[in-house]
Amino acid sequence: MNRKNRVNIISNKPYLKFIKYGLFALFLTINVNLSAYNIKLEINNCPESFIYLGKHKGPDFEVIDSIVATKGVVIFSADKTLETGVYFIIIPPQTRFDFIIAKTQDITIKTDARDVLNKLEINGEKQYQTFIELQKQIAEINKQRVQLEMELNFFKMYQKDTVNHVQKKIDNLNTAQIKLYSIYKAGLSSDEFLFKTLTILEPFTPPDSINQLKYSNPEAHYKYYIQHYLDRVDFSESSLLNTPEFIFHKLLEDYCYYFFDVRANKLNEVYSDIDSLIAKTNNNIKFQQYILSYLISRYEKPTDLRLEGILVYVYRNYFIVNKPEWVTQQAYEIMKLRIERIQYNLIGSVAKDIIFTDFKGDKTSMYGIDSNYKILFFWETDCDICTDAILELKTAYEQFKSANIEVMAINTNSKTHKEWLDFINTNELTWINAFDKEDTTNYEIYYGTYKTPRLFVLDKHNKIITKDIKPDYIYKYIESYEKHLEKERGRFDFMFGE
Stretch 28-44: mean pLDDT, rounded? Predict the structure, then answer.
């Protein structure tokens, strides 16, 4: 084979999408065993261009090889075996098809570039062709579903009495697709890769005895779900990680959302369930690597900052205690730095008391502020974003004072002390203006002021209730928080008859 026809797997071709999950990708480095594979492609009407072979890896993928087609024939081969999983072939400019590789790795694939899926044939194991046939049937279902969804959107605007009829057709198609999984599974052995993949795609169906608990005993109902939702995954089969995003990765996403994210107010109850999830991977290092990497990626910058607590928990218990061998030193240092900056200022935790010097030279304790809520704002005068936010905060301050909400604004740059004093006087900032005169408070550690501005909202007990929100949203957030507390108090009174 002419090695000059090969290109580097790192390409800027528009039809190639590469790693997008930051630290998640940084952690994932999988090796394969030595042996051999030989994949011959016979493609009618194939363009004279590079044909790409790749492997799925959840939301990411790996391009393994690329060769220029010669008269529609391409042969991918190497002196190593490929991991079992779902692979793909890309035929430029926009054509791609998926296929399975398991134990048999000397195979021939035939198709036509003008009608790839319908003309697709593959030899080898039975599950290889079964996977192709399943794709053909699902493609037909998808075609019908797209048409019905277009009709649904039209009828929602112009003929609403037809919506339910069209929606029922869509629901029937969804049901038909799920039934296909069971039909095709019936013709496979339970130890085959495709069988285990289809098992993941089947919906979770608890027994009737559990469904009956939904209203009579919701806690037991929920507990059953969280304990058994992932029973459909064979965690000893790491090849299930070599699948498209909508298979195992989507299942993991859903699990984290429904059992972790929605319980952001009660993270202390979540941590044991995180331990249970990771414990499922104890006998498979690749699964453990994937899930831990995903958890770090998901909660490294969550949209709901309350979930940062999960990041700290995972890091402390699964990285600090015993650093996994697969974690690179670069990734470890990044995570260490990140954790150091957030572990003391998590939402729901009690803020560290710090004694600052106010602009008059007097000592001021953050705990000593007597108010219903406290706004801590860390900023510096040579930061345009900071000064804009300060002026927004000033606009809201009159409303704050009427609700007994106090502001302490801390200058983080001692080199601009004069500019800071001038800014305070010019803009008549009458709240508590302070700075760390002796540079001994370590507020950078406790409040993560590696960036500015940083804003924290504390209740009267100095608990952080939110952070890094916009100044003009503070009052509305506190109102919402008060309503939530009132609702919780009402629930408590109802339960205990008060």
Answer: 72
User: Mind giving me the DSSP string for 345-372?
Assistant: S-TTSBPPP-EEEETTS-EEESTT--SS
Mean pLDDT for 249-274 is 96
Mind giving me the DSSP string for 400-424?
HHHTTEEEEEEE--GGGHHHHHHHH
Note down the domain range covering 179.
135-191
- Residue 399 and residue 453 share a domain: yes
Residues 431 and 331 in one domain: no
CA distance 241 to 68: 29
Place of tokens 């700290």: 312
**Radius of gyration for the chain, computed over Cα atoms and rounded to the nearest angstrom:** 29
Q: What is the pLDDT of residue 412?
A: 93
What pTM was estimated for this model as a whole?
0.84
Give the pLDDT score at 99: 97
Check pLDDT > 50 for residue 292.
yes
The band of 337, judged by pLDDT with boundaries at 50, 70 and 90, is confident
94 and 18 in a common domain: yes
Domain boundary among 124, 155, 177: 124
pLDDT at 15 over 60: no
According to the model, what pLDDT value does residue 489 have? 67
Laid out side by side, the sheet with 405-411 consists of 363-365, 355-358, 432-435, 405-411, 373-379, 454-459, 464-467
What is the average pLDDT across 295-303?
A: 93
The pair of three-digit structure tokens given for residue 232, joined into one six-digit string: 């459909």
Same-domain pairing of 214 and 332: yes
Note whether 232 and 204 are within 8 A (CB).
yes
Total structural domains in the chain? 4
DSSP string over 146-183: HHHHHHHHHHHHH-GGGHHHHHHHHHHHHHHHHHHHHH
Mention every residue, 6+ apart, whose C-beta is less than 8 A from residue 483.
none
Residues 197, 94, 28: CA angle, nearest 5 degrees: 45
Whole-number Å distance between alpha carbons of 281 and 240? 13
Taking each helix axis from N to C terminus, what angle separates 267-279 and 308-315, rounded to the nearest 10 degrees?
50
Rounded CA separation 58/228 (Å)? 22
Q: For residue 441, give the 3-state DSSP assignment.
A: coil
